[in-house]
Design a protein that fits this description.
A: alpha/beta; nine-stranded mixed sheet; four-stranded antiparallel sheet; B: MetI-like fold; BP-dependent_transpt_permease (chain B)
Chain lengths: ~325, ~300
């Protein structure tokens, strides 16, 4: 089946003064319709930048220097701004982390929810209002007619995130980007929002790219998981095999750092050290300074992406040593 | 009236939510000075609108048998000037000129300032160029800039309005640019872009309304400066030409008779002072009323 979104060898650089820093290095992945891809990584690993570059909304000093992003055969890299505006909100939409700041505090919910309908579907204010009510119903907001006239500060965080989802889905996009949409919410609301996104994905047959650092959320929602570290893919694969059989030491570290409430004396493992800065020069594998299994080769040469099984890759020299001699290298 | 406003304010939750406008007006009415200022402005507007009804003589009508009558003369309440023109009617018609010049030049200045401010705040590439032009305008003392423009365009009240409006542009542009810079960094602007809103839509529909509060205050304060400058320019002979009943020109007419008929200058002088005072205190009051951080119960 043809992928809905195909990202190939994406590289994003930032200009700061005279320096050029690579925030995303050679990332490739694809998302099919009805599939959820979770991008997992620490703060600063390039998760959000990856999703913003899909939307063409990188900060002004950021730039896609290599690679291609295709949305159902249409190339998005280098697309003129006017064309991109027709795609944003219409074919690709985004949900943000903080619903409180992603909605304009000075306008009513209705005003902001009408925007995508008026921009893309050219509806009049009245018909847009009717549509808004059915959209709010769809995302499970009670008393939608009243909510339309309210301001963001009058609604709770969970309700606002539902409004954000309604705005994002107003024009029935094919692809939904969700940038840590549940991080700012408490746990019970988190579960509701995740269920809502999952339901809507099934109803509308969207592809979802879900950015998060919460392994619990990943287990709940993901079909595919992409673990990224310092702008590179550490490991990519389907959710079951990543959770049951993590190959990359970084994935193992992330899974080890998830608290477990069932065991009484569960000790939380941490990954020592912290994410390198973008301008740190690291020879060999970018994870080796923090890796408990680091070998000589890790310090010298950057590992290629080793194929573990179908659709499963790990960028780690351990693959060459451990799995078997015939492990094929994907270039 | 004060008590009423205070009473209403103690139960703000009585009606579930009040419109921003009503809230602002209520806060403004708590400020006694601002209320006084408002009363003066309203009086001025009434004088300007109903000028023909309120006077018995034409402001241009000369009566050489009754020159330099003092204040309190039976026929002429505020006396007459050296040509025997009724000062009250000249004052009332002068209100019209102040208001019209004030409103039109502040309006023009706002249009220019908003445009430049929005563009330079939003588009980084234009920022340098526009702000240098604004710096250039700032470098001139305001009255000198106005005189320069009038020297080019010629003396008339319309040119005064144009000159003063150009002088209003830089201040407005800087205020707007500052607001735009802080607003465009907000996540909701990114969110608007993510649903495909064009730049012009974002600027006009989402950023402009968010930076209106400081602009309302600026415009009110600017009215005071504008009225004062109009009078100053007319006093210098660069604005309204005789026999136009302009306040500054009236002061200039009276200065030769300061010892024999001081009311010729003092009456329009007090009028200018009151109006400038009124716009300034209302501007101050508005600034406090529009500031969401103000604690209402204090």
């Amino acid at each position: 089946m043809e992928g809905l979104l195909q990202v190939k060898n994406l590289e994003v650089q930032f200009k700061t003064g005279k320096k050029r820093l690579k925030a995303v290095r050679d990332i490739s992945f694809s998302v099919k319709r009805g599939e959820t891809l979770c991008i997992v990584g620490e703060s600063g690993s390039g998760k959000s930048i990856t999703s913003l570059s899909i939307l063409g909304l990188l900060p002004t000093n950021g730039e896609i220097t290599k690679g291609s992003i295709r949305l159902s055969k249409q190339e998005l890299v280098g697309l003129p701004e006017k064309e991109f505006q027709k795609i944003r909100g219409n074919e690709i939409s985004m949900i943000f982390q903080e619903p409180m700041t992603a909605l304009n505090p000075t306008f009513t919910i209705g005003f902001q929810l009408r925007e995508p309908l008026m921009i893309h579907r050219k509806l009049s204010e009245e018909t847009a209002n009717k549509e808004c009510i059915s959209l709010l119903k769809r995302v499970g907001i009670p008393d939608p007619a009243k909510k339309l006239k309210q301001f963001p500060h009058e609604l709770s965080g969970g309700m606002l995130q539902r409004v954000m989802i309604a705005i994002a889905l107003a024009c029935e996009p094919n692809l939904l980007l969700a940038d840590e949409p549940t991080t700012a919410l408490d746990v019970t609301i988190q579960a509701q929002i995740l269920d809502l996104i999952d339901d809507l994905k099934k109803q509308m047959g969207m592809g979802v790219v879900f950015v998060t650092h919460d392994m619990g959320v990943v287990a709940e929602i993901a079909d595919q998981v992409m673990v990224i570290y310092a702008g590179e893919i550490a490991e990519i694969g389907d959710v079951d095999s990543i959770f049951n059989n993590p190959q990359h030491p970084y994935t193992k570290g992330l899974l080890g750092a998830v608290p477990n409430v069932d065991e009484k004396e569960h000790e939380l493992n941490i990954i020592p050290g912290s994410m390198p800065n973008l301008d740190d020069q690291i020879s060999g594998c970018r994870f080796h300074p923090r890796c408990p299994y680091a070998m000589d080769v890790c310090r010298k040469k950057s590992p290629p992406a080793f194929r573990v099984s179908d659709g499963r890759q790990s960028k780690c020299w351990l693959q060459e040593v451990n799995v078997n001699e015939s492990a094929t290298t994907i270039t | 009236m004060q008590d009423n406003a205070a009473l209403n304010w103690k139960k703000p939750k009585a009606k579930k939510k009040e419109k921003m406008l009503i809230q602002t007006i209520k806060r403004l009415l708590k400020n006694k000075l601002a209320v006084l200022g408002l009363v003066i402005i309203v009086l001025q507007v009434i004088l300007a609108v109903f000028a023909p009804v309120l006077v018995n003589y034409s402001p241009y009508e000369q009566n050489l048998s009754e020159t330099q009558l003092g204040i309190g003369s039976p026929e002429h309440l505020l006396g007459t000037d050296n040509y025997g023109r009724d000062i009250w009617s000249r004052l009332v018609y002068g209100t019209r000129i102040s208001l019209i010049v004030g409103i039109s030049s502040v309006g023009l200045g706002l249009i220019g300032g908003l445009t430049l401010g929005l563009l330079s705040g939003y588009y980084r590439k234009l920022d340098g160029v526009i702000m240098r032009i604004v710096d250039l305008l700032f470098a001139f003392p305001g009255i000198l800039l106005a005189m320069l423009i009038i020297a080019i365009l010629g003396t008339s009240i319309v040119n005064v309005a144009i000159a003063i409006s150009i002088w209003s542009i830089p201040g407005c542009a800087r205020i707007v640019r500052g607001s735009v810079l802080s607003i465009k960094k907000q996540e909701y602007i990114l969110a608007m872009k993510s649903i495909g809103a064009s730049n012009s839509r974002i600027i006009l529909k989402h950023i402009l309304p968010n930076c209106l509060a400081p602009i309302i205050v600026f415009a009110t304060m600017r009215m005071a400066t504008t009225i004062l400058s109009t009078s100053a320019l007319s006093f210098l002979g660069l604005g309204a030409q005789p026999p136009t009943p302009e306040w500054g020109a009236m002061i200039a007419d009276g200065q030769d008779f300061m010892w024999t008929a001081p009311h010729m200058s003092i009456v329009p002088g007090i009028a200018i002072m009151l109006v400038v005072f009124a716009f300034n205190v209302v501007g101050d009051g508005l600034r406090d009323a529009l500031d969401p951080n103000m604690n209402l119960d204090v």
